[in-house]
Amino acid sequence: MTMQTYLADAAGTADTAGTADATTPGPTDGLWHLRAAGVSLVLEVARSALPQILHWGADLGDLPADELDALRAAAVPPVASGTPDAPVPLTILPEQSAGWLGTPGVTGHRDGADFSTRFVVEQVRLVHDVERDGAPVAHRMTVDARDSEADLALRIEIEMLPGGLVRARGRLRNTGAAVFTVGSLDLALPLPREADEILDFTGRHLRERSPQRHDFVAGTHLRESRRARSHDGTLLMTAGRRGFGYRSGEVWGVHVAWSGNTRTFAEQGMPTGERLLGAGELLLAGEVRLSTGQAYESPWVYASYGDGLDELSHRFHTYLRSRPQHPGTPRKALVNVWEAVYFDHDLDRLTALADAAAAAGVERYVLDDGWFRGRRDDTAGLGDWTVDDDVWPEGLHPLADHVTGLGMELGLWFEPEMVNPDSDLARAHPEWILQTGNRMPPEARHQQVLDLAHTGAWEHVYGQIDAILAEYPIGFVKWDHNRDLVDAGHTATGGAGVHAQTHAAYRLLDALRAAHPHVEFESCAGGGGRADLGILERTERIWTSDCIDALERQTIEAGTGLLVPPEMLGSHIGSPTSHTTGRRHELSFRGATAFFGHLGIEWDLTAASEAERSEVARWVAAYRQHRDLLHHGRSVRTDDPDPALRVHGVVREGAGEAIFAVVQLTTGVWAPPGRVRLPGLDPDTTYDVRPLAPGDVVEPGHGEALPPWWSDGVRLSGRTLAGAGVQLPHQFPERSVLLHVTAV
Ligand code: DGJ
User: Fold this and answer.
1) Structural domain of residue 151, as residue ranges?
2) Is the pLDDT of residue 27 over 60?
3) Which SUPFAM superfamilies does the UniProt entry name for this protein (predicted)?
């Protein structure tokens, strides 16, 4: 094969010197080896083919030039019977013109023509140790290509982040005279044969991130979100060696950083059986039509590899924590009034709740839904973001003064992208509702979606929220989104409106953040319906689920936590009886569950007993004491053989300290459970292990005793703790204990 000469330089934007772990360029022009934090990405770019990933996975070490060349030679498949005469490359945007018969990377047409692309690479640039939006990027490859037949220009960016996370996106520009309609732009990453089991997530409102595992078989396992939220769409599509777990087993995963419609898939092509993970935005028919010179940019597709899910997950956490906007201040313990009062906004009741919260050590008070004009229940008011005079004759000032007087910060709820038909806004501007033809979409929670692509609608919402944030001392906004986008047309054009709506919602959030830089934002979509890296670039927290039941939360947070680090996972202590499941849980279990996220309370503390209130105060104090570890450390989970038991924790970077939870989900077949392993510590350090208050209470079962080490602790090395473990007490189901592990 004749390799062309490509530009492979710093393009004047970066320092290529001093980069120890990248080969620039490869021994033959067109081969690159990008490395970071235990991950290798070997890319081949030929003039005739878009970037081809020859290896994505475990670090291959410092490959000498001839070995890199040999790797390429070794990767070329033989021609299979019944296939084109030359091997078909699986490029990052696979093209049918090269013989690829799986999902194409780009689809679209120009009035029916130009339906199949054939891009020719014109330039490749590679820079190292640069930044994007203030976050470090270890290596960035930019590939410019052109299809002069179809009159399209393409730019692909591939970045390796310092923590080993890879991300890629494409930008398609119409260079022709007529409109080009984009159907899809999906990035594809190859998987090795070893990836033969798929794990992704499904769910619903109140039960987000339910894992589902199955074999990798021929065809496409496609998960789509056609509702601009994803209670049921997968947050991560992963595939790995059969039986991969948290601590071991190679696994690869992709995620789309986009809050609109998405597609994520695992595909195995026939007859040659290549496996891949693909992802991109799901575009509705005709949603992106490019006039001459216009471009469509896909969202970033993030790709993480790990030996075990913990490692895969850690790369996401490392990236999120590397951004300048990542919440760096201690995550304030908060109270959210929703499940305490719902729509019953009574000043005396709300101030009494504030008093109880402040006495428990709470630092932020969030007034939820129900404060604005006409909002006495969920049938009216959305869109009219002024304080309701009937309920709040003096505005929110009396409450704001009371809350801040107690030393707490005030937070406020909005649902900016929504409108109730019963609102002044909807009555004045029915054309600002996302709708198609002469019909309205079916109502959901009595509401419709406000089409923010209408400048007037955007300005109306911006103006009203901006005014509230300017008038009151608000430090936190809970940004909700309680219905799906369906039949969502833009009235000005009659075209599908989800793509433009997603951009407009981002612009709204960005503009409000710029105008009120001290305000933190929480992404909520009826709980965890919007938890992607697109929204997380502009929010400090997600509301993980409307289900606060601690047992359900064990699974919901394990799944969501693969992507989102603990400090961004809203996790609340709810009432003794869960409002959404009817289960009753001890405060110790509710506290120990909320402890591992950004802790809040969502319970009418004024109705709690003195004993309960003082126990809540102990949990808040423990959270405040340990949040530095919990919110900066490395999350670990074990692959305990007993499905009744779950062990998870956070290990401080440097491994000097850790906190683990041992959770008894159901009754176990064995009691006591046997020795439980504590992973992720430094093998050569000796640790003191002891129960951590207030999560140290174990109710003795039927005459059972505590393990002998329980009262005085035990000293063991990290190697022994990970390899041999410690005996744990027998617990009732739906209980947990905390262990504090400190280096001696
Ligand atoms: C759905 C949210 O997830 C809840 O926490 C609450 O804010 C309600 N909306 C209010 O309508």
Assistant:
1) 5-322
2) no
3) (Trans)glycosidases
Closest protein CA for atom 2 of ligand 1: 526
Cα-to-centroid distance, 369 and ligand 1 (Å): 7
* 8 A C-beta contact, residue 155 and residue 170: yes
98 and 215, same domain (yes or no): yes
- Helix, strand, coil content of the chain in percent (nearest 5): 20, 35, 45
Structural domain contains residue 329: no
401 given a catalytic annotation = no
Indicate if 654 and 702 belong to the same structural domain: yes
Per-residue pLDDT, 670: 82
Residue 701 has what pLDDT?
67
In a domain, 671, yes or no: yes
Binned at pLDDT 50, 70 and 90, residue 14 comes out as very low
Check which CATH number belongs to the domain holding 463 and give it: 3.20.20.70
At 602, list the tokens: 């969502």
Q: Which of 196, 307, 451, 480 is catalytic?
A: 480
Give the mean model confidence (pLDDT) for residues 184-212: 97
484 in a domain, yes or no? yes
Among protein residues, the one with the nearest Cα to ligand 1's atom 10 is 369
Q: Domain end: 322, 344, 362, which one?
A: 322
Atom of ligand 1 nearest to the CA of 527: 3
Is it true that the peptide bond before 271 is cis, omega within 30 degrees of 0?
A: yes
Q: Which atom of ligand 1 lies nearest, measured to the CA of 336?
A: 5
Q: How far is the CA of 636 from the centre of ligand 1 (A)?
A: 30
What is the count of structural domains for the chain?
3
Number of the ligand 1 atom closest to the C-alpha atom of 378 = 11
CA distance 651 to 682: 10
> pLDDT tens for residues 578-611?
999 999 999 999 999 999 999 999 999 999 999 9
Asked if 480 is an active-site residue, the reply is yes
Model-level pTM? 0.96
- Ligand 1, pocket residues at CB < 6 Å: 338, 368-369, 413, 480, 482, 524, 526-527, 543, 546
Q: Are residues 132 and 230 in the same domain?
A: yes
30 plus 79 within the same structural domain:
yes
Centroid of ligand 1 to alpha carbon of 480 (angstroms):
7
Q: Does the pLDDT value for residue 357 go beyond 80?
A: yes
Residue 679 CA to residue 385 CA, distance in Å, equals: 49
The residue type of 375 is R
Structural domain includes residue 220: yes
What average pLDDT does range 269-280 have in this prediction? 90
Q: Given a cut of 70, is residue 647 above it in pLDDT?
A: yes
